[in-house]
Amino acid sequence: MVQINAVTTLEVKDGIAVIAVNNPPVNALSHPVREGLFTAITQALADDSVHGIVLGCEGRTFVAGADITEFGKPFKQPGLHEVIDALEASPKPIVAAIFGTALGGGLELALGCHFRVASADARVGLPEVKLGILPGAGGTQRLPRLVGPEKAVAMIVAGTPVTAKIALADGIIDEIVADPIPGAVAFVQKVLAEQKPLVKVRDREDKILATRENPAAFEAAAKAALKKLAGVEAPAACAQSVRNSFSLPFDEGMKAERELFMQLISGEQSLAQRHIFFSEREAAKVPDMPAGVKPASLKKAVVIGGGTMGGGIAMCFANAGVPVTIVETTDEFLQKGLDRIKSTYAVSVERGALKQDAMDKRVALIAGTTDWNVIADTDIVIEAVFEEMALKKEIFAKLDKIAKPGTLLASNTSTLDVDAIAAATSRPGDVVGMHFFSPANVMKLLEIVRGEKSSFPSIATAVAAGKLLGKIPVVAGNCDGFIGNRMLHRRGTECERLLLEGAAPQDVDAVILKFGFPMGAFAMGDLAGLDVGWRIRKHRGTKAPVTDALCELGRYGQKTGKGYYIYENGSRTPTPDPEVTKLAAEKAEALGVKRRNITEQEILERMTYPMINEAAKILDEGIAVRASDIDVVWAYGYGWPVWRGGPCFYADLIGAKAICDALEHYAELTGDAGLKPAKLLLDLAASGGKFADIGVTKKAAA
Ligand code: T1G
User: Fold this and answer.
1) Are 317 and 324 in contact (CB under 8 A)?
2) How many alpha carbons fall within 13 Å on the CB side of residue 660?
3) Any alpha helices (H) in 553-577, and if so which ranges?
4) For a pocket test of ligand 1, which of 29, 62, 68 has the largest count of ligand atoms closer than 8 A to its C-beta?
5) Which run of H or E residues covers position 409?
6) What is the distance, to the nearest Å, from the Cα of residue 379 to the centroid of all Cα atoms in its chain?
7) SS3 (DSSP) at 102
8) pLDDT at 367 over 60
9) Where does 261-356 show beta strands of DSSP type E?
10) Measured in whole angstroms, how far is the alpha carbon of residue 318 from the centre of its chain?
11) Counting beta carbons within 10 angstroms of the beta carbon of residue 686, is it exposed (0 to 12), middle (13 to 18) or buried (19 or more)?
């Protein structure tokens, strides 16, 4: 075996050269890897004793793409194109040995080989669109030549990997093997023995000819793939590049792909999406976690409450293969909860998103009882009952008596004081908040609330639980509304004021949708139910004149057919209602609020800047560990468009000074001192600093 460089080896045995990359953690195509590959291929091609070549990897996965950390840095040769061209030009058969994931540049590398074999659990795909770019090393030109442009555009615009089984059926791989490298060696020996012709993927036309003659099916597939992606640059560029694969000669298609790639990679949207990529991975790291603290293993789970949230949380455990028991107060409530779970799974099966046998396996992992003793033998308990402090305290006092030592006791509260809940037990160190987002079996975000006394093992276990459940865990300090809801509340206050000052719900929501959110603020309020906030305000003695008045009229939103909008005959489509504007005008008059035309720009600023201001306070108080955590919370919990990077990333694009000036203006305009810029934001404005520079907040690092 020859060590070509630190990350590449070449071993020749019985006429077969095995080139292996070993660049942990995911064999990304860093400059040393590209250089090592190019050298190894050149050597193998020049070696007359070599008749066939296998391209493989050591470690936990095949190549998971270009090295994203090199983006934006000076480019070093050889590029991936040179490496792939060398593979494709080889007169000796080359087989890629895929396992784990072959993603982005990793799959493109494999598409440069003559053949591909993979282990049964492998997944292959081109996820570049999730980084705001497109496959830039031939993926948009070679993949259509294997699977056809229709399948290719769907795969590339979605960026979702496919399983080895589908890849084999679609012709991306040639064989599923038990062991990648030995399997690839056997495959290349078979090619040599049968003198199979070496067809370069670039020369394959059979899968694109029909589309070239009649692109109607492709255009339909592209249109379907691009639905709901208006304003996002990369998906449209992906579709155009796949269109080039059958409408242009290969080399021209490659050239156009390169140009599109260079445009996107230096754009704001890709910067934002790469920021989110690394931020979601960073968020799981707790800076002050002492080395050696291990999360407890989670073999069994209990969920208190089988309502919408409790049921969704139980599904998360079942989806992760963890047996879970729902504890309810009555058999009737229990059955209702279990039935709701079954019907949710049934909808996924109907849609083809889940196989019947997978549903059966998951449902079999979910049990239900009214007997609390089940808690004595579990590793984690998540309480998901009604948002009422007295009830929560009663439950945690009960858990304290039954649960075995070391059981993680978590509350799914979205607003209540976790320290107060923990104080109802004799083991506050074992108590954390685990705030799931509705629908809990779908939403990726998990806000882990660290109480004053939450122990490091408890935090570590909660973060590990989040990952186990396929969530993106973000650790937040304990305060009213934690990170997400605290900022959302700030936006809500502005929404109410804008209604009084003259903006209609549909005006505000139109601006928010244009910005890229999947749903407007008022439509979201109607979905969640206006009565939820009304009850909290009444409890706190605060007011929202227009919304309170709507609630007094029984207009709670979708659930009552009327809220800020009207929902005809149970539909979910919001229809503007002039009655709401009339009511707002009456309230404004009663409160002496002057009504005026409000520009889209002002609406956008008041829907974002007060939240950013709150983010500054949240960071200053150490409630969030990093600014990027706040961006992850909003991107995965509240629909902030990932291609806008999150509130703090967005603020850095605008600049703290401009935001402070606008906030000063709105504070004066509205008379709300709460809009005055936070100290941290003023400091950034004065220093010309960015949220990105703040790094880990002092308190969190302590
Ligand atoms: N480059 C650099 N670092 C990477 C990386 C990459 N491509 N992928 C992962 N990492 C780091 C990650 O930040 C983390 O670091 C560690 O590896 C483990 O990752 C020309 C230009 C492969 C499915 O988009 O989807 O090719 O936090 O926690 O959950 O067309 O990582 O430990 O310091 O995510 O097991 C296209 C991105 C690139 C795939 C593994 N490829 N990666 O998931 O581990 S663009 C991608 C993933 C491209 C070409 C273009 C996942 C994974 P740290 P992890 P995981």
Assistant:
1) yes
2) 19
3) none
4) 68
5) strand 408-411
6) 27
7) strand
8) yes
9) 301-304, 324-327
10) 20
11) exposed
Please count the residues of the chain: 702
* pTM (2 d.p.): 0.95
Q: How far apart are CA 495 and CA 604, in angstroms?
A: 11
Q: Greatest CA span in the chain, whole angstroms?
A: 92
Cis upstream peptide for 78 (omega within 30°): yes
Q: Which amino acid is at 404?
A: K
Give the DSSP per-residue string, 194-241: TT-----GGG--TTTHHHHH-THHHHHHHHHHHTT-TT-HHHHHHHHH
Residue of 21, 23, 26 to mutate, ligand 1, most atoms within 8 A of C-beta: 26
DSSP string across 112-174: TSSEEEEETT-EEE-GGGGGTS---SSHHHHHHHHH-HHHHHHHHHHT--EEHHHHHHHTS-S
- Of 453, 469, 275, nearest to 382 (Cα)? 469
| pLDDT at residue 702 greater than cutoff 90 | no
CA-based Rg of the chain, rounded to a whole angstrom? 28
CA distance 209 to 175: 25
The pLDDT of residue 511 is 98
Residue range 156-207, pLDDT digits in tens? 999 999 999 999 999 999 999 999 999 999 999 999 999 999 999 999 999 9
Average pLDDT estimate for 532-542: 88
Could you tell me the two tokens for 441? 């079996």
Residue among 11, 35, 82, 108 flagged as catalytic:
108
- Ligand 1 pocket: which residues have CB below 6 Å? 25-26, 28, 64-69, 80, 101, 103-105, 108, 127-128, 131, 135-137, 139, 278, 281
Report the Cα–Cα distance between both ends of the chain, in Å, rounded: 48
Mention every residue, 6+ apart, whose C-beta is less than 8 A from residue 614: 486, 487, 490, 678
Distance CA 199, CA 599 (A): 60
Give per-residue pLDDT as tens, 310-327.
999 999 999 999 999 999
Q: E strands along 453-493, which residues?
A: 472-477
d(CA 647, CA 268): 14
Q: Quick one: tokens of 178?
A: 């038990």
CA of 599 to the centre of ligand 1 (A): 41
pLDDT reading at 541 higher than 80: yes
3-state secondary structure of 181: helix
Look at strands 8-13 and 16-21 and give their pairing.
Answer: antiparallel
The residues pairing with 411 across neighbouring beta strands, listed in sequence order, are 383, 433
Q: Which one of 128, 233, 447, 496 is the catalytic residue?
A: 128
CA distance 493 to 392: 27
CB distance 323 to 300 below 8 Å: yes
Q: Helix, strand or coil for residue 557?
A: strand
- Average pLDDT of the chain, as a whole number: 96
